Amino acid sequence: MQDQAERLERGRARDLLTGAQALSGQLGKTIQRLRKAYNLSLSELAEQSGVAKSIISQIERNETNPTLATIWRLSQALDVSIERVLAAGDEEPFIEKASRSDTPILVSEDGRVRLAIIGWVKTIEWLQWYAVSADLGGVLDSDPHQRGSVESLSVTEGAFEVEIGGAVQRARAGETLRYRCDRPHLVRCTEGPGRATMVVIMKAAVME
Questions:
Q1: Exposed e or buried b for every residue in 30-45, given b needs 16+ CB within 10 A?
Q2: What is the CB neighbour count within 10 angstroms for residue 161?
Q3: 19, 24, 191, 202: which sits with the fewest CB atoms below 10 Å from its CB?
Q4: SS3 state of residue 104
Q5: What is the DSSP letter of 98?
Q6: What's the Rg (C-alpha) of the chain?
Q7: What is the rounded CA–CA span in Å between residue 44 and residue 38?
Q8: Would you put residue 41 in left (φ > 0), alpha (ψ -120 to 50) or beta?
Q9: Residue 46, CA distances (Å) to 23, 28, 37, 65, 122 in order
Q10: Dist CA 11 CA 198 (whole Å)
């Protein structure tokens, strides 16, 4: 009986080890897939999560069994639940849905331009994008962003003009304006109602 019990115990230990290795391998693949899907380098994910770059690399290569705290930090940096990180397989698509009530709205000082924040909160320090709606004559007067930043305004309805340092350029539906936004800049709706998508790259290469 004792020998049989020992064999059963060894069998359970092997099963636990096999299961842990399988989970670890799946976890590493999931972390790597999500990181690449968000176009994050190992260094960037390390900075955002507080987990050492070397540890993340080991996790992705299935060379270590991370602690629950480490998995939690990575899941927060990747903006997914810890359950999804542990359960997601390679074939599972990553899809999130934000309702209208969950979408913050910024309003210009004159109250005639509205920016719905449709970008991802996790990227707000370097990439922002908005759905713009404006009444005729509405003005969005913006302070400079950090040096080298670039803004892109793609008009889908009506017309807008952008003014920077006395220079003015206009765009109608189907046209896009791209411009440095590291200086005071003004966006005005010249044909309303106007609609556009605005993308701000906060850490673009400096344009000389």
A1: bbbbbbeebebebeeb
A2: 16
A3: 19
A4: coil
A5: -
A6: 24
A7: 11
A8: beta
A9: 22, 15, 16, 17, 14
A10: 59
Whether residue 94 is contained in a domain is answered as no
Looking at the fold, whether 22 and 114 belong to one and the same domain comes out as no
Domain membership flag for residue 162: yes
- Cα torsion for 109, 113, 116, 118, to the nearest 10°? -110
**What is the tally of structural domains in the chain?**
2
Residue range of the domain that includes 80: 2-87
- What is the tens place of the pLDDT at every residue in 93-122? 567 777 777 788 899 999 999 999 888 766
Instruction: Please give the torsion angle defined by the CA atoms of residues 51, 54, 59 and 62, in that order, rounded to the nearest 10 degrees.
Output: -170
Q: Are strands 150-164 and 167-172 parallel, antiparallel or unpaired?
A: antiparallel
For residue 200 the two structure tokens come to 């701000």
Among 117, 73, 79, which residue's Cα sits nearest to residue 95? 79
pLDDT of residue 18: 41
Percent of the chain with pLDDT over 90: 34
3-class secondary structure, 58: helix
